[in-house]
Design brief:
Helix content is 29%, strand content 23%. The protein contains five helices and eleven strands; from the N terminus they run ββββαβαβαββββαβα. Helix 1 links the parallel strand 4 and strand 5.
């Protein structure tokens, strides 16, 4: 279980809420390098379990999946404008509680938007955005992507039109080092694993993690 604040930037409607949100998470593997996998909507952390298992089996990584607030077994209500707050809590947990300093962020759709925001604030080893909106409600990743110094990998499907447009915006604004991959079809986020491109997506992600 991972404690998360109500918000890193409290809002007036927070009132007297001072008890932390408790996020449900699961660990895979015991490697020296960390990976945090952030899920998309309406999925939960289980959408990452097979990939987490595959990565952990390589022996080099400790992989953390978690449910955003209001999803799965995490407490609280769904607050989509605070997904970055929850991911930052998972990052802090991996560094402070597990003692893992080198951490990659990999996110699908809204989880990717959150990953880019946190990568702009924290010293991450690398960040992967899969089918991520440039702006998700009040979460604006496009405004900060140019400040991310870590290696970046942007992934989308050619017929997932909104995500493809966001990827074009990210690519234009992001600084080097940056990479992108565009798969055929219209698969979105972790649904891509279930498409004909699934094996190539797994290989591409592993290559990025290994190379950085």
């Amino acid at each position: 279980m991972i404690p998360a604040a109500y918000s890193t930037t409290p809002e007036p409607d927070d009132g007297d809420r001072d008890e932390p949100i408790v996020l449900s998470g699961r660990l895979f593997g015991r490697g020296q390098t960390g990976i945090i996998l952030a899920h998309m909507r309406p999925a939960d952390q289980t959408s990452w379990f097979q990939f987490a298992t595959d990565v952990a089996a390589t022996g080099g990584y400790t992989v953390l999946t978690f449910d955003f607030r209001g999803f799965g077994d995490s407490s609280g209500e769904k607050e989509f404008n605070r997904v970055d707050t929850d991911l930052e809590a998972a990052f802090k947990y991996m560094q402070d509680e597990l003692g893992i300093r080198k951490v990659f962020l990999v996110g699908a759709s809204m989880g990717g938007t959150a990953s880019l925001l946190v990568a702009a604030r924290k010293d991450v080893a690398g960040v992967v955005s899969i089918s991520s909106p440039a702006v998700y409600l009040d979460i604006d990743a496009l405004a900060v992507v140019s400040s991310i110094k870590a290696p970046k990998l942007f992934i989308t499907s050619e017929d997932d039109v909104p995500a493809q447009r966001s990827q074009e915006q990210f690519w234009e604004q992001a600084r080097d080092p940056k990479e992108q991959e565009i798969f055929e079809g219209d698969g979105h986020g972790t649904d891509l694993f279930g498409t004909p491109a699934g094996a190539r997506l797994r290989a591409r992600l592993l290559d990025f993690l290994t190379n950085h």
